[in-house]
User: Which sequence fits this backbone?
DNA sequence: TTCTGGTAGTTATTTTATTCACAAGTTTAT
DNA sequence: ATAAACTTGTGAATAAAATAACTACCAGAA
């Protein structure tokens, strides 16, 4: 591939374009221009074209993009042309919400194992999934060739959870705990911080008052 | 203020620094250097100093920063030197998780009203909060002078929810629905997209295979 | 007091990302 | 056929952000 060094912001937008295209396709729309995509997701048309240009030429000059084709291309680029089994650690309220989150299934993700070290939670069911003790993680990961884990435990338990995931062979971690995790080279890690964006809002509201 | 045009990435990091400082303070640590903060949150020391420099001089050369002082400064900058009442629309699993999310309370946010248009949910309790019909939002917002709302509804209902929030006087919205919202000038909006980061992981795992 | 080691604040440099502007190609109408 | 109206892909220009390098300053030891 000639495709090294793609800005992460581009991948982020690609994910957004991709889901926008899904909605267009569902509506039966066949063709769309960069300008319309831009309008629909809130970026500039040039940005849309530039982002796509990292990966090839998908449109037709004078015409635009075929919605179905571009949708497939974006899914392929994002690695979503196949299902992704996930394991989740932390059967609290957030874990529960993630297990039942429709957005994951829609994109080919399925949580196939939920783990916790809380004896009061182990054995309970989250929809059709039983909550297992941490010891069972290794078995599930091997059986389903899971590569990605989600951390939804309290901050204090996040690092040890991550360590265990790595030990069990996971290659990528999505971390909802608001702490920086220390991981070996080669493990992909991304954090989702529920409060950061809220604090950007309060910062901006505060700025506004001081004008 | 001389402080216009601060990169949003700086605010994001400030939020992270701030919570790191809280943990240091709880541990009784008095002084810390930019290098140690950097280490603790996973950025470069120069980045830490640069970020803080947008807002003033908080450290002592040759010494470092006083943890308690810097914590207070960061909280003040982020607008967290006062409580923030929030309203939430969408009493699904995600809404429930957000209501009980400890990270919000720790930072002075408190959800004081939950709303839904689903008759089977209205009247039920989420911890000590009753789920109200949307019609009651206006009243609660006025009574508590709420300025920020959280959207945790399905994608299709997100735009109308946002419109209603704006109509009821909210000035900022945190949106968990994966759609771009169309809002009037002057309303702050930030999206939290639960799947984007997951798709960055699959993209990177995919890249790795093609090497 | 003076020297040494260390650290913040700041300016300069480099890198990265976005926007702009236009050539190249497509379609439709005349 | 030709012109007119669009829209992509892309190289160049611009803007933004991160990094590095440097200066100023503090504390403690000699």
Assistant:
């Amino acid at each position: 591939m000639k495709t090294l060094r793609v800005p992460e912001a581009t991948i982020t937008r690609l994910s957004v374009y991709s889901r926008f295209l899904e909605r267009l396709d569902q509506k039966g729309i066949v063709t769309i221009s960069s300008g319309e995509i831009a309008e629909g997701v809130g970026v500039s048309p040039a940005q849309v074209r530039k982002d796509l240009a990292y990966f090839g030429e998908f449109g037709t000059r004078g015409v635009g993009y075929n919605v179905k084709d571009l949708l497939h291309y974006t899914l392929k680029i994002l690695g979503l042309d196949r299902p992704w089994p996930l394991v989740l650690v932390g059967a609290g309220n957030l874990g529960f919400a993630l297990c039942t989150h429709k957005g994951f299934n829609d994109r080919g993700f399925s949580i196939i194992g939920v783990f916790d070290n809380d004896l009061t939670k182990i054995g309970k069911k989250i929809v059709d999934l039983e909550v297992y003790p941490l010891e069972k993680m290794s078995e599930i990961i091997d059986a389903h060739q899971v590569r990605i884990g989600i951390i939804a435990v309290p901050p204090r338990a996040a690092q040890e959870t991550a360590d265990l995931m790595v030990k069990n062979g996971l290659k990528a971690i999505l971390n909802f705990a608001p702490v920086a995790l220390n991981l070996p080279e080669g493990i992909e890690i991304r954090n989702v911080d529920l409060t950061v964006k809220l604090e950007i809002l309060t910062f901006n509201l505060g700025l506004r008052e001081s004008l």
The domain at 84-196 of chain A is CATH 3.40.50.720 (Rossmann fold). The CA atoms of residues 201 and 209 of chain A lie 13 Å apart. The mean pLDDT of chain A is 96.
